[in-house]
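Problem 12. The chain below contains 400 residues. Write out its predicted structure in token notation.
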Amino acid sequence: MFVALYFFSFFIILTIKNKDKLFDYPKPRKDFFISVLTPAYNEEDTIRDTIEHIMELEYPKNKIELIVLNDCSTDNTSKIIKELMKKYKNLKLIENKTNLGKAKSLNIGIKKARGELIAVVDSDSFPSKNSLQKLTGFFSDPKMGAVTSFVRVRNKEKNRLAKIQSIEYLIMGWSRKLLDFIDSVYVTNGPLSVYRKSYVNKVGGFDPTTVTEDIDITWNMMYHGYKTGMCLGADVSTVAPSSYKQWFKQRMRWGMGGLQAISKYRKIFFKKGMFGAFVLPFVSFSIVMSLLTFMFSIYLVLKFFATRLLTAGYSLSTDSAIFSLQDINLYPSVIIFFFVVLFTLSTAYAWYVLNKTEYEQNINTKKFFNILFYTVLYLSIYPVVWFASIYKFARNDLRW
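Solution.
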């Protein structure tokens, strides 16, 4: 509880201190030539919309190219791309002869790319028109290696699960921006991130052995001393899983990728600047505390029911009262007190973030507490994903 309150207070302090700079971004000093890479595998439902969004970006047309990396799709993905190539002269297609996976496909695209900067856009993601322009200004800093965007859920009205994820994405994006103020952005997301090509090559490109290439490339950049950043004003929407099976598979992949990254860079704990001193401990402690809190909660619930069951059995056998007013404890424990404090702070923080990020035009009290109720349930069961990820990681089973 102390660790949770400590880190939560830390984020609140960062919010207060930087509240006037959260949506700021540096103005670009020049128009970089940018190669946008979009890996695709059986994306016929979204690839057309993704390509059109990229082509409609507010960026000089002679300074941008789009390379779609078709990884042996078996649907109409290739056909749709070839149709669009007739319309867009700066659209290129690379067809892999065998299925290589996302990381290897990106590395092939980087070799063919002409841009000084590389933008990666998932084939089910849709950048806002001014997003790329806002991201490029960060690269006026010669040490900047990668900058990521603010992700919103495109299909949030699909069902309850999608709506909960839309809130989760907003809070994750907000928190990531806060970490930007202390040089600790540790994920450059797949929906839209921009990288300096020369630095990507220097760190060896995207690692095909990891299941989350976006986490690994970010940590690799930080390990080599390059900066990472985040722009809260650069919006991109993406399609979130709308079924629990899809959601579980996605989150288990994220979990295994995080564990891979921690294992890979474990030797620099509390070393090598903010990466070793803060990012590695923060991510690791977050996982550990999530698991411990879940197990402790299960223990308390089981203890409560076991105690009541034994007490009821004893009362029935002795013909005494099962419940009496003396059993009521009007003095809450320290744990309960801290829980109330944490819950109150979390509620106020979530309300603030949802309003600042314009989650909806009108968030009334009833709607907010409905959102909060389902979100609390969602977060309560999330550690199950971590247990599954740890189990598969321990068995070296990286399938998802």
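Discussion. Residues 135 and 201 are 20 Å apart (CA to CA). Students who got a different answer should revisit the alignment rule from Section 12.3.
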